[in-house]
Amino acid sequence: VHPxxxxxxxxxxxxxxxxxxxxxxxxxLFFVLxxxxxxxxxxxxxxxxxxxxxxxxxxxxxCAKCKADCDTCFTRNFCTKCKSGFYLYSGKCLEKCPDGLxxxxxxxxxxxxxxxxxxxxxxxxxxxxxxxxxxxxxxxxVRVREIVQHPSARGNPCPATSESRKCIVQRKRCxxxxxxxxxxxxxxxxxxxxxSKETRQESxxxxxxxxxxxxxxxxxxxxxxxxxxxxxEENLAPVDTAH
Length: 243
Known about the structure:
- The chain has helices at 177-222, 232-235, and strands at residues 5-6, 13-17, 21-25, 30-36, 39-45, 52-56, 61-65, 70-75, 78-82, 87-89, 92-94, 101-104, 109-112, 117-118, 138-144, 147-149, 162-168.
- It is α+β, with helices and mostly antiparallel strands.
- Among the domains are: 6-64, Hormone Receptor, Insulin-like Growth Factor Receptor 1, Chain A, domain 2 (Hormone Receptor, Insulin-like Growth Factor Receptor 1, Chain A domain 2, Ribbon), CATH 2.10.220; 72-111, Hormone Receptor, Insulin-like Growth Factor Receptor 1, Chain A domain 2; 116-166, Single Sheet (TSP-1 type 1 repeat), CATH 2.20.100.10.
- It has a three-stranded antiparallel β-sheet with strand order 1-2-3, with no helix packed on it. The protein has a two-stranded antiparallel ribbon with strand order 4-5. It has a two-stranded antiparallel sheet with strand order 6-7.
- A hairpin with a 6-residue loop joins strand 1 (5-6) and strand 2.
- It is elongated and about 145 Å long.
- It holds the Pfam family Furin-like_2.
- Residues 116-170 form the Spondin-like TSP1 domain.
- It is found in: Secreted.
């Protein structure tokens, strides 16, 4: 072994030197050169850093650099994330997306163009005018539909979600809700008044009967009892027949 090479290394190195750092790694670790100023130092990592991809060989596992426009990659020719200003498409980093695709600035990918989709129209609503369905001959009816798929940035815009058209109905009078309500209120008040009147009359009748009964009882208590008239025959003195 070279005098500058040591086998008692730390940090996952199998062999190392004081000047170049790790020279080889322990099993399953990746060897990568890190630049520090003008100097490159070998390190051993469990996974490759951003901008590198791992390759495994029988004698060594190494981290190799991705392409310049690629931030992370699976292999040198298959990028998984692009650097700023590029859009990912099929493992490649492009400045402009192909025809039929659009750039998604959120994911930084080229995606398919999505057009707007709307549901079927609903049935026409009843013919109305100023919110009423009576008291007119010509009015309007409406139908609506919903958006089931909103478009992407370059997709076709959504159509109108409501339509209206003129309609003709057979004229009919509206029931005067206010008058009907007033009549019902008057009937209710009258019914309550009649019930109250009957209740008062019954109360007066009961009070009058009670007063008459009390008056008779008082009269019976205050009037003197009539004495029984004496019998004339009893008042006659006995006749002395002896003389």
